[in-house]
């Protein structure tokens, strides 16, 4: 999986509170309002606001994105990476 990084306004995950100011995208486009992102820590789905901070998805958004294969792949990638980082920290 090849990701492109973008500088973003400071924001925090509405699910776990992880702060971030960068986002990775699957194409060269920087994320915009209404786009989906996945928290790098908890792998839950977030949606970009107009000011590019993030919020929890609405019910219909959650349904739409949890069935999107690209989002599912990203969630698995993050869960796998987080698992490896945690395992390394516990060594
Ligand atoms: Zn999170």
Poorly predicted segments: none
- Ligand identities: zinc ion
Which secondary-structure class do the elements indicate? alpha+beta
Shape call:
globular
Gap between N and C termini = 27 Å
Strand elements, count: 5
Number of domains: 1
Q: Describe the main β-sheet briefly.
A: 3 strands, antiparallel
The arrangement of helices and strands along the chain is EEEEEHH
User: What is the spatial order of strands in the main beta sheet?
Assistant: 3-4-5
Measured on Cα atoms, how large is the radius of gyration?
Answer: 13 Å
Residues in helices, as a percent range: 25-40%
Average pLDDT level = 89
Count the DSSP helices: 2
- Portion in strands: 25-35%
Textual characterization of the structure:
With 91 residues, the chain is an alpha+beta fold. The chain has one domain (4-89). It contains 2 helices and 5 strands; from the N terminus they run βββββαα. The chain has helices at residues 59-66, 69-89; strands at residues 4-12, 19-25, 36-38, 45-48, 54-55. The strands form 2 sheets. It has a 3-stranded antiparallel beta sheet with strand order 3-4-5. A two-stranded antiparallel sheet has the order 1-2. A hairpin with a 6-residue loop joins strand 3 (36-38) and strand 4 (45-48). The chain starts with a strand and ends with a helix. The mean pLDDT is 89. It binds zinc ion.
Task: Describe the structure using short key phrases.
binds zinc ion; single chain; alpha+beta; 91 residues; 27% strand
Give a quick precis of the structure.
This protein has one domain.
Give a topology summary.
Layout: E1 4-12, E2 19-25, E3 36-38, E4 45-48, E5 54-55, H1 59-66, H2 69-89
Antiparallel strand pairs: 1-2, 3-4, 4-5
Residues 13, 15-16, 18, 39, 41-42, 44 line the site of zinc ion.
